[in-house]
Each structure stands twice: as C-alpha cells, then as structure tokens.
Design a protein that fits this description.
It is a single chain. With 530 residues, the chain is α+β, with helices and mostly antiparallel strands. The protein folds into two domains: 2-250, Nucleotidyltransferase, domain 5, CATH 3.30.420; 312-459 and 493-524, Nucleotidyltransferase, domain 5 (2-Layer Sandwich). The strands form eight sheets. It has an eight-stranded mixed sheet with strand order 20-21-22-19-18-25-26-27, sandwiched between helices. Strands 1, 2, 3, 6, 15, 16 and 17 form a seven-stranded mixed sheet that branches. Strands 4-5 form a two-stranded antiparallel sheet. The longest helix has 26 residues, at 504-529. The N and C termini lie far apart (53 Å).
Length: 530
C-alpha cells in the first residue's frame, strides 16, 4: 500500500511517500519552501498559492523519484502546523493571506477580552478561564491563539469579515482544496478553545461562542482526524499529477500524529519533539491542565485520547539561526561556493552532521555559556511575547563552538523544564522517545539524556515522524484497523542513550542558572521589546 503524506511545517512542506505492509518504509521524500511574512505589528502570514505551488511541485517530483504511477497511491493526508487562521468564501477561496500560529496581531483584542475582570490568573479573567476549563480543560491565554486572529480581522478588516463563509485551520484549507469539502478536524477545532471535549458533548460549544462573540455560522462541520474527508477532485488531481478519486483523510495538526509516528501510543508514554518548534508530550486517556504553566491535554488523532502538551515555539529554529549567523563564517562551511542566503531548510542536515563533530569538541556545560531559546517570545511554562534569546556568561576564553553547544543545551534545558512542569500533574515515562530533526545527531540525543536524567530512545525516519504517524492512520483507515495498535506493531526504537553520571554536576549547575534567567530579565525584556 502506498500513501502520500504532506508534512506541512512553518517554512516548508515535506512530501513523503510511504509503503505500508508488514512494516512501514519511507520510499521517497521531497521538499519545497514558502514564505513567512512577519510584520512590525506582530503579524506572521503566509500565502496559499505558495503553499499549493510547493505541494504540486513536490508531488510530481516525488512520483518521478519513486518511479511509481499515480494510480498506485491509495490514500493521502496532511499533517500540518496548527493554530493558524484561513478565512474562505463558499468556494473555499482564501479571502486574505492566512495567519500562522506565530501571528499575534490580535494582542489588543486578547487584552480587551481576557484582561478584564477583578480576579485574574496568568493575567486572564478568572471567570472566563473557569468557563473554558469546565468545557475543555483549556483556555485562551495567549494573543497567538486563533480566536484573536479571528477577532482582529473582525475589528480591522470588516470588508473581509463580511465575506467569511468558514474559518479554517491550515490543514483544513488544504483538505478543502483537494476535495472541495469544507470541514475541520476535531483537533484543529479544539485548538480554537471553542470546542467541547466532554464525553457525549463533543463539538462547538455555544456558550463559549457567545462569550467570545464568534459567529457560529463561520464554524464548519467537524470530522475525526482518522475519518475520510473525501476523494481527490479532478481539478486537484490534474494540478498535483495524481489520479482522481484517491481517498483523502482528515489528517490534522502535527501534535496529533507525532506520538503515533514515535510509537508512543500507550497512556503515559512521553515523547520530546525538536523540529522548527519543539514540545514535550505525554499520551493520555484523560485530560489534564496546568493553566499557570500553559499546558493542557490536546486532542489526539485517536478519538478519546489526549496529548498532554507543553510547547517551545523556537527549538530547532534556534539552531537554524545559529547555523546561519554563527557557523557559516568562522568554520568555513561553504560547500559548492554557497553563501549564507543560498541555504534552505533541507541543506541543514549535512551542516548539522559536520557541526556535530565541532560541538563535541566543547565540553558539557559549554564552558559556562548558557543560551535561552526564546527567539520569538515564549508560551510555556511562561507566556511572554517580549522574551528573547540570549547568550549568558560569554568570557574571553569562549569560542563559537561553546556558543553552538550552548544553543543545543539551552533547548534541552527548556525541555527539562517542560518535563518537570508536566510531572506536577501527570507521570511522564522513565524512557522518552526523542524525535524530529533535532534527534538526528548523537551529540544532541546524549545531551538530552544527560540534562533530563531520562533514558532516551530514537526511531527511524525521525525527521518525518509526524508524516509517519499520519501514514499509519491513513493505512489503518483503509485497512479498517486500529491506528494505535498498528503503530505499536510497526514503530520500534533504533538507538538508546542512557545518562552519563559524570556529566550531571555541570548540567545541574547550568540548569539552575538557566531557570533564573527569565525571572532576572523579565523587566529588561519588557523595556526593550514591549
């Protein structure tokens, strides 16, 4: 069985062809980028035609690379970035450039709604938070949440707002473009925090819609992530180079499928993901919430299950920044006479491999240099759009290898912080699966084990782990099997990393300093970045 999965990230799409029989194999992979348009008012927008062009070009390239015929593909789905906002007309056409999850133009709308009231928790109205928590164990505590994108358009672009037929997330828009059916998957509906997760009441909650003043007519029907949304239309098939009638499944957000691709499908299983963004997630058969630390149980791809999810918005993005601005000049990594601006996300694998050897020359603790990975503010365990990245304690004897190692250690320190926050409410597993592009290098895997004190396992095709989980869901849907059981059967660990006791002391010292850096600089961040 062949299935195509579009792993739709912040800056590029990875289009993957999987063959699934007694095992799951990645047959071929292609990639193409698209823009992220950041504006001074907090905007972070993208372009639907750039998305579609990337999807079409990578699909045709994929079929050529794999040497298979279009009619051999049995199913397809999208595993997409979440908490975006795409506003469409009745024909599914986007009315304006979509806002992605980083967009925080709606800060004024957020403060006016959630900042009112006498009693507040985390700067938000206790009354409104309690109403949300009762319905779905979550609440809108960030200006980046989708409802404030919706309200911003209502307040600032009334002509666009009047034309809205439905409000979609990014993956939902792409499903609509492929099938002609305008729906939302349950996980992206939940990500608006307007969805009721209580058993027997699942769906849009009328009370929350009224509280946030959201027009219910703008909200589409909801399907499960594992459900077939439709089939590929003739128009979409022609543009993609595929066969009309291929089964298109609901798919959903990347957080919904990574645990399945990681093989973390038993309640209590924990995985850590480091891609452009990063997170710690524990698979659960119940919901939990820690409103102070901004952690909640988001819907899993499998109905009735949840991922207790704590996010770092710029994880691998920090290392990408370091590659561009620290490594490419001093270390002379200029293959094929390229310059810094010639590099795309897909080039970073070879650079990462080279730099891993350089990073290992710096000792654990990076000779006292500490980095904070908050290059676009932070959400968890503290919400502060003013927070920024910093290198702390650079001295005359330090070099760029120390700084590069500090970037990786800073990401791992933050992941430990998220783990510790999770453990206040749930039990994380003693062994965690480490997945995403960040798990490609042994030095990072060992670093994560040493800093967290956990045994760390990795899996095959770690960069495509979200796509792999989505492929397993599609295959299970076509076969009529249980996706969680299929994952347990086919996804196995390929390497194990145990903590090295001799590295514990220096990491414990640096971690304590890392934890104090935000508290010590919160006022300074506000003065500079407010």
């Amino acid at each position: 069985m062949y299935v195509i999965i579009y792993d739709f990230g912040t800056s590029s799409v990875k289009t993957c062809l999987f063959q699934i029989d007694s095992q799951i194999d990645l047959i071929a992979r292609t990639s193409a980028g698209y823009g992220l348009y950041v504006s001074d008012n907090g905007g972070a927008e993208q372009d639907t035609e750039e998305w579609w062009s990337a999807i079409c070009s990578t699909t045709r390239e994929l079929l050529n690379k794999a040497d298979i015929k279009p009619d051999e593909v049995e199913g397809m789905a999208f595993c997409s970035q979440m908490q975006g906002a795409v506003f469409v007309d009745r024909n599914g056409n986007a009315l304006r450039r979509p806002m992605n999850y980083l967009d925080q133009k709606g800060y004024k709308e957020y403060r006016e709604c959630m900042g009112s009231g006498i009693i507040k928790v985390s700067g938000c109205s206790l009354y409104k938070l309690l109403r949300n928590l009762r319905v779905n164990y979550a609440g809108s505590t960030s200006a980046k949440d989708p409802v404030w994108k919706y309200k911003w358009v209502e307040n600032n672009e009334p002509e666009v707002y009047k034309k809205i037929y439905k409000w979609l997330d990014i993956g939902d828009y792409l499903v609509s473009r492929c099938t002609g059916r305008i729906v939302r998957t349950a996980d992206t509906a939940f990500a608006t925090f307007l969805y009721d997760t209580r058993k027997g009441r699942e769906g849009w909650n009328k009370g929350l819609l009224k509280m946030y003043k959201v027009n219910p007519d703008h909200l589409p029907d909801i399907i499960d992530c594992t459900e077939q949304a439709g089939t590929l239309t003739a128009k979409a098939a022609q543009e993609l180079g595929l066969a009309e009638g291929i089964r298109v499944f609901g798919g959903g957000g990347d957080t919904s499928f990574v645990n399945i691709g990681a093989g973390c499908t038993r309640p209590g299983d924990t995985h850590i993901y480091v891609g452009t963004s990063g997170w710690v997630s524990t698979f659960m058969d119940r919901q939990a919430v820690d409103i102070n630390a901004m952690i909640t149980g988001v819907l899993s791809a499998k109905h009735g299950y949840f991922n207790y999810y704590a996010e770092l918005e710029t994880a691998g993005k920090c290392y990408e920044w370091a590659l561009k601005h620290l490594a490419l000049d001093e270390l002379g990594v200029y293959p094929d006479n390229k310059t810094v601006t010639d590099y795309s996300e897909t080039d970073y694998t070879s650079l990462f491999n080279y730099l891993s050897e350089e990073i290992e020359k710096a000792p654990p603790g990076a000779n006292g240099v500490i980095f904070t990975p908050w290059l676009h503010g932070n959400r968890c365990p503290f919400e502060d759009s003013n927070a920024g990245g910093m290198f702390f304690n650079i001295r005359i004897e330090n070099d760029k290898r120390d700084m590069l190692r500090a970037v990786l250690e800073g990401i791992c320190y933050h992941m430990r912080w998220l783990l510790e926050c999770q453990e206040k409410k749930v039990k994380t597993s003693d062994t965690v699966r480490f997945v995403g592009g960040g798990a490609l290098a042994e030095v990072t895997c060992q670093m994560l084990a040493d800093i967290t004190g956990k045994t760390v396992e990795t899996v095959n095709n770690t960069r495509e782990v979200g796509a792999m989980g989505t492929a397993l869901v599609v295959a299970a849907g076509i076969r009529g099997e249980d996706a969680l059981e299929l994952s347990r059967r086919l996804v196995k660990a390929n390497h194990v990393y145990n903590p090295i006791p001799g590295n514990r002391a220096v990491y414990e010292r640096n971690y304590k300093v890392f934890r104090n850096l935000y508290k010590s600089n919160v006022v300074n961040f506000k003065r500079i970045n407010n």
